[in-house]
Structure formats: C-alpha cells, structure tokens
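tool_call: predict_structure(chain=1)
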Amino acid sequence: MATEAPQKSSEESFGIDVSAVREIAQDVLSEVSRVIVGYGDILQNLFIAVLANGHCLLEGVPGLAKSVMAKTFAKVLGASFKRIQFVPDLLPADITGAMVYNNKTGEFEVRKGPIFANFVLADELNRTAPKTQAAMLEAMGEKQTTIEGQTFPMENIFTVMATQNPIEQEGTYPLPEAQLDRFLFKLWLDYPDESGEVEIMRRQLSGRKIDVDIITDPEELLELRDLVDQVYVDQIILQYIRDIIHKTRTDPQILMGAGPRASLVLMKCSKARAALLGRNYVTPDDIRDLCIPALNHRLMLKAEAELEGVNVVAVINRILDETPCPL
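tool_result:
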C-alpha cells in the first residue's frame, strides 16, 4: 500500500525560498536554447548536474552538437572552459599537467593541465587508452588531482561533460564501470524532430553567429548550491529511493544492480530538480524523472535478457511501475 507523501507545499513550511534557483535556471536554459535547438530535457539535466556538483556523459551519433552544447553552457554560466580531444596516444600528463623545468629560475614548476577549469569537455572519451582515462578518476571522484606527488584541488565549480560515439567500436576503449559510476548522468541525444531539423537549417541560412550572454558566474552558482542543499527531503522519499535501488539488485534480468552511490545521486539530484522547478521539497515525480539518466549506466543486464532484446531503459521503467509510489 502506498504511503502518503508530505503535504507541506509552502516556503514557510520548509523555511527556504528557492525562487532564485528557478529564475536563474530559466534564464540560463533560455539563453542556451538560442544556440541549441531542442533537447530541453537534456539541457535541464545538465544544469541539475551543475547544481548537484556532478558530471555528465553525453552519448549520441556524430553531428548532434554535443560539443557546442557543453561550450555554450560554460559561456552562459560565466565559467572557464577547456576542451580535451581524447585520442589513442594521449598521455595522463596531457590531462593533469606535469612538472616543467624553468630555465630562468633553474627550478621545476607545476604546469597545470586542461583539467583545471570549471567546465571540461572530454571529447570522445572512449577513444583513449584506459591508463589515460584513469587520469580523470581522481579529479571527478575526489575533486583533486595529483601531479608528481603534489595534490591540487579542483575549482569549486568543476563539471566534466564527456562525450562518446556509440556507433564505432574499432579504435575505442569501453569505459570501465568505475569510471562510468563517477558520472551523475548518462544522457542520450537522439536525432532532432522534423521541425527541429528545419530550424537548424534556418539558423544556418541566416549566416549570423549567435553570441550568447553571460547569465551567472561561479560565485552565484555556489550560492544556488547552498539553496539546493536546504531543499527538504522527507523520510518517505528516502524510503522510495531505497526501494527502487534495492529492486535493481534483486531483479531477475539484472546482473549488477546500482550501488549506494546511485541512492545518493537520486537524493541530491532530486533536490536540484525540485529547486529548479521552484519547489523547496522533493516529490516522487522528481525521483521518477531522474531514474533513467541516473541509473542507465549503472546497471548491467544478464546476457539472456540482452539476447531477448531487453534494454536497460525498459527494465528501469518496469521497476518504477512495480515499485509502490508515495502519493
């Protein structure tokens, strides 16, 4: 039997005003949409990842503006941006940096790599060897990078937006499970719809380059994160998250279910989604809306399920249907 969710709905009830989060989010997403046609849900989830202090993996066929999306997002947020093109001969030091000899001073000094930025676009992450991919793990998981035995903290606002091409297997290295788990979301970009395709061509016909405005800055984003942290999560919601995650571990079609990190991701991101929509409390709809981007890269199906044509998204949707939802 479903348990009733909390009835409080006013700012006075929970003591926090999140209107600033909603207003800035609307302005940011509107500005990014001046460049990116469609993908409203993808853009919203990217901003949720920023508010939740996490990273996103963007997957889709070539030509869907994944790189442009990351660069535009960084500019609108007033954040520093670095792009790393991952290729087979890329070395870990090309990402993190290295000790370099300074002829003027006669001493070695640290030259930081492109990982030290607010937004890092890891373009075609699966094209480099596992040793180089692993250079990202410490920065993504612990918000720090070690160079020649010295540890350096990352920026307060630090988000990796990685892309990978799902259609090519030759010359690529599948991301290990440990690295996939470091991504808050895995977002799939599909082809634009018919009207979107026409709009893309129309914008190109004009020949005018769209110069987006800076809406916010890293300091203000930190303030928004503080507001998100104060969003109310009822015990009933925590139990709902627990039930969903537990079912992924016992489902007969799943070989490897979601770990505790997935529970924390759903909790944090649901708070960010609630604030982005102007609410200071989390509802079951926040959880249900985020389950697919938060879980689709954390579950491994059994071979027999894959042979039957079952995919992860279908399994997640079935688990959501089978899990009693607080009303």
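agent: The chain has a mean pLDDT of 84. Proceeding to next step.
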